[in-house]
Amino acid sequence: xxxxxxxxxxxxxxxxxxxxxxxxxxxxxxxxxxxxxxxxxxxxxxxxxxxxxxxxxxxxxxxxxxxxxxxxxxxxxxxxxxxxxxxxxxxxxxxxxxxxxxxxxxxxxxxxxxxxxxxxxxxxxxxxxxxxxxxxxxxxxxxxxxxxxxxxxxxxxxxxxxxxxxxxxxxxxxxxxxxxxxxxxxxxxxxxxxxxxxxxxxxxx
Length: 205
Prior knowledge:
Elements: E1 5-9, H1 16-29, E2 34-38, H2 44-54, H3 63-87, E3 91-95, H4 98-108, H5 113-123, E4 131-136, H6 139-145, H7 159-175, E5 180-184, H8 189-204
Parallel strand pairs: 1-3, 1-4, 2-3, 4-5
Helix pairs in contact: 1-8, 2-3, 3-5, 4-5, 4-7
C-alpha cells in the first residue's frame, strides 16, 4: 500500500515546524509508520545545500541560483528519502516542499512560473503531495514571532517580500483547492493541531 504524502507550508513564523512535530508524535502514538522531514534538507547532500541557501553571508546569491539550489536539494530528498518511504507504505510529512519555491522564488522573486513548474516536475520525479496544509497568517505577524532569534538569509528579506510570499501561497491554494487546506495560523497551537489531526484522520479513512 502506497503511503500518504503530507506537506506543510506558510510564511516565516507561522508554526509549521511545531505542527509537523506535534503531528508526528500523534501518528506515532497511533502506531502509524511515519517519516517526518523538512526542506531544504533531509539527506546529507540536501542538508549541505540548505547550509548554502540559508547562510546570511551569501547575500549576492541570484534568484535563479537560489531556485536551482532548492530544486537540487529537493531532487536528492525526494529520490533518496521520500519516494522510498512512500513505497514502503509510510506516512511522510514534510515541513515545506515545492510550493515554497513557487511562493518564494516565483511570487516573491518574480521568476517565471512555467520554468519553475518544468524544473519542479523533473526534480520531484512528478511527485505531488496528497495534502498540503497551509498555515496562513499575515506576514508581519509571522515575522514578529521570529524577531527574537537568529534569522537566516530568507527570513532577513523585507516585509514586502514576505507579503508577496503569502499572496503567492493563497493563490496556490485557490488554484489547487483539491490538494490545499488552509488553516488560520493565529489560533492557539492546540486548536490548530486538533484541526490538523481531524483532517489527517479523514484523509486516512
